[in-house]
TrEMBL record:
Keywords: DNA-binding, Transcription, Transcription regulation. Residues 3-60 form the HTH lysR-type domain. It comes from Acinetobacter populi. GO terms for biological process: DNA-templated transcription. The keyword Aminoacyl-tRNA synthetase does not apply. This is LysR family transcriptional regulator. Transmembrane segments: none annotated.
Amino acid sequence: MLDNLRAMGVFACVVERNSFSGAAKELGITTSAVSQQIRSLEQEMNVTLLHRSTRKISLTEVGQAFYQSCQEMMAAAERGKIRISELQDNLIGELRLATTPELGAMHIVPALSQWMMAHSSLKVRIEAAHHYVDLVDQHIDIAIRMSPKMEQRDDYEFIPMARVEQVLLVSPSYLNQNPPIDCPQDLIKHELLPIDLMTDYSKFSFTHATSGEKVQIEMPVRIQTNNVFVAKTLCQNGHGIARILYLDAQHELRKSELIEILPNWKLPEYILYAVILKREQQPVKITRCIETLKNFFAQLPGGR
């Protein structure tokens, strides 16, 4: 099929140039190669497409009908090239993003809201799930993830956007009604409200911001969840201590609905990053989207 399409293109060029040699020059091949392509078409279809003479060529009746089909094919190919160029260089088509429900609702939508409004020709789909998606299998353009360290894969490109601290939070009422918390060891007397998507969610490795002292503990757990919103609500209702990323708790901290404990004892940071497939040239819609995300998160005190 591919050879036939190539031969149809050669035939159309011969008709347009009214010359085998002219077509050969246009296509960058030899005149004999042009002749061979035309002969192959005629032999396969068992027709004569061109009347040949020493001075000129002309179309047969069958050749005229076939030339119209060749023109339609060439026009379709050109439209395809234009469409590819538009998709590659302009903010049109569809952009598919994948992230977690919490990241999507609290950060990705606010980050991209004005950008999406400004580019109404671009369709956007945001896939929100807790499991990691395969970018190829699920046709994802950009995955936005949060983890203690970025993945390593040769076929993916990983783009860091922000470093985010973990904080320990309690409600004001919990702080007033329970034993004081002055050092990491005091946490053993309290219950953790973990988001169990975290690895080793009940274990803590603290480093003192000034002295560098390191302490490792494990907290007791009775109530747990897989959702940041639920963990914060449980914490606000005085059910225990929540281990949450600072980026996810800024609103509640500003309004004093939640209070940070042990601020001088630091937990390992998380990295907010984007994942895209490695390409020699990324579509503009992907690069512009990532630029918008990076600019948004650069202005947030996520890591303080």
